[in-house]
Amino acid sequence: MLLLLPLLASSQKLLEKPKNLTHARTFSFSDSSFAGDLDFVQGKHCADIHLHFDSHMYEYSIDSFKLCLSHSSYVPEAWFTNLRHTFEHMYTQYSYEWENMTMYDSEKYNRYQLYMSARHSLDLYKADISRSARYFSEPMNHLSLSSDEQTALAALSETGQNIDELKSSVDAIVNSYTTSIRSKSSTIQDYLDASVHAKNMFTSSSIYYEHNVTDILRKITSKPTSLYTCPKGHYCPTETSSIACPAGTYLDAANHISVDACVQCPLQTYSTSGANNCTTCTTNTNMGATACHLRSLGEVIATMDASGPIAENFYIAFDMTRTYTSNTLLSPQETALAAGKATIRTPAVLGGPARYLATSSLTLGAVVDSKTFKWGKVGEAFQINLERNSLVPANSSEHPPAGSIEYWNGDRSSISTGDMDNGNWIDGHLYDFHIDVSATELPLYTFGATPAFVQESGIQWTITAWGQTVLRGTIDTTSIPGKTRFVVKLGSNGLPEYRPFDATLDVNPQEQFTQTNTELVAYVFDGTLVNLVADTSVLVPELMTMTAEDRYVSDMSALFTATYGIQTYVDVFAESDLKSSDVVAQTDLSKWSGPYIDGSINYALELTPTTWSVSYTPIPYVILSGTREGKTLLGGTPSDRGMVEFPLSLAGAAGFPVVSKYGTPIHSYTLK
């Protein structure tokens, strides 16, 4: 009973009358730049009379507004297309809010009735409790001096059972009403949430509504000129200036002088700049579209209710970081390693090199001139590593061959010199480390080339010997206070670059590469440049932290660039809101959008009463399939990241989980 008291105490507030939802909304329909324009002022008067929104306003209000304007101006119906849609949407949201608030108040009253019913039930039970209270200890009245222990205990037990029965009855009443009240409260909250959502949508639509009306008022002030010619799709403020109407608008009449004459494209159309009409695009769901919306496969399937060809291009977003292979969904690390993207820092058991000695510190060598030291000190070997990339062979065996990254890095146990445990660079004292912080360019030497060097801009230090500059970069004196960083220049793949000798010339076997990267990001000196001392100053390496997953993402992104950057894709997506450049720019592979540009020709949805599939034709490759439960199409491949997309009918094919463009798993589609 006590649990119900707080609810009963607030009952008076719950009986308030439903709120007034008339929403008498007024609008300014004004533009200060047209304050002195008679056409605008007269048009605003028409809008003020007919278009202020309230509960008694109906669709014919727009017709009344149009008729009012037509008395003094030419007003084509095309001007009103978007206004009618906005009004319909706004009025619908108004109705939703009113209906939900009505149900909200009704359900609040019903909940109050539950409070009263609970109180009434408990009041009635009080009489039963009073009557029963006289009898619940009746078993104890029969005890006497001669009663033994067992008899007394049995009487106590029976008395306790009587009390428990009374309590159970009260608990049953309370629990029943508690469940009902909570259920009713949940329903009330649902109606309130729906009402608030509708109100917010109404407010959003009303802002656009005001914009639509004001735009029409501006248009009646914009009249064609007879003084000079201006083409359709353009407006000409002067005789010598022609400006294209903005994308998302059109102008089917000539000789206009103001941008206000350009008409916004309606739903299911779009336009690029300078259009004299809008192009049909049934997938566009917003007004003023500037490109044809490319829908996801899920959006397309939601418009279908039978087997047949997929009648439009579409895209599938999938998590490229999680490969599905051999009936197993791999982790991002497993996916990267399975793709052969281990780095030189990856443990050997996971595909890294058999042994790894990190790039080491070194002592700066002798002075050559005022701006040059030797790279290393005489008699001191140091370690510098190359990093794996897709263009250079990697070998994880105990005896990597010459030409592999691991052999270059000093793992040379297959030859007499053995592993280079003290460092793989033994002649640093022969290389010149040239430093010029004021330089805007420095010579870049290439062994065997003619000319021997070219000037490279943006370089402030180089390391060169034998006519080959192997490392170069910039000088950073600000990112770490009190320290100097010699930052290695990045290669075309975005990683620190080592410049190998030309493999076609007479060079050491370890130099036989096409393109190489180093794990060295920068050499760091604890001090300023003026503090550098020959045979004393130590350069400490700052190393890459790239993991196998990072390398996988980098290589896959480069592959996408190579694929979707070609002119074919640029042309196909020229009038789509998913541009080729947008696809190339994607770097979050957990929500990568993969376009299927030939969907209208080559893909079909197949439905049976219990199964479904999406197939590529004419070669019947099934890329998605599963079971069907009515209108719900469930993915057939189990994965916590979503159903899996890949050519199921191709032996050994690997797939990827299907996700939304936000990266959330998609396990099913829904038919129309």
Tell me what the CATH architecture of the largest domain is: Up-down Bundle
Strand order of the largest sheet: 12-25-24-21-20-19-16-14-13
Overall pLDDT metric: 87
Structure summary, number of beta strands:
33
Features:
Tumor Necrosis Factor Receptor, subunit A, domain 2; nine-stranded antiparallel sheet; six-stranded antiparallel sheet; alpha+beta; 672 residues; 13 helices; Substrate Binding Domain Of Dnak, Chain:A, Domain 2; single chain; 4 domains
Quick take:
By secondary structure, the protein is an alpha+beta fold. The strands form nine sheets. Strands 12-25-24-21-20-19-16-14-13 form a nine-stranded antiparallel sheet, with no helix packed on it. A six-stranded antiparallel sheet has the order 8-27-28-29-30-33. The relative contact order is 0.08.
Structure in words:
By secondary structure, the protein is an alpha+beta fold. It folds into 4 domains: 2-219, Substrate Binding Domain Of Dnak, Chain:A, Domain 2 (Up-down Bundle); 222-293, Tumor Necrosis Factor Receptor, subunit A, domain 2 (Ribbon), CATH 2.10.50; 296-334 and 553-670, no CATH class; 344-545, no CATH class. The strands form 9 sheets. Strands 12-25-24-21-20-19-16-14-13 form a 9-stranded antiparallel beta sheet, with no helix packed on it. A hairpin with an 8-residue loop joins strand 5 (269-270) and strand 6. Helix 3 runs antiparallel to helix 4 (60-70), helix 3 (38-50) runs antiparallel to helix 6 (149-219) and helix 5 packs antiparallel against helix 6 (149-219). The relative contact order is 0.08.
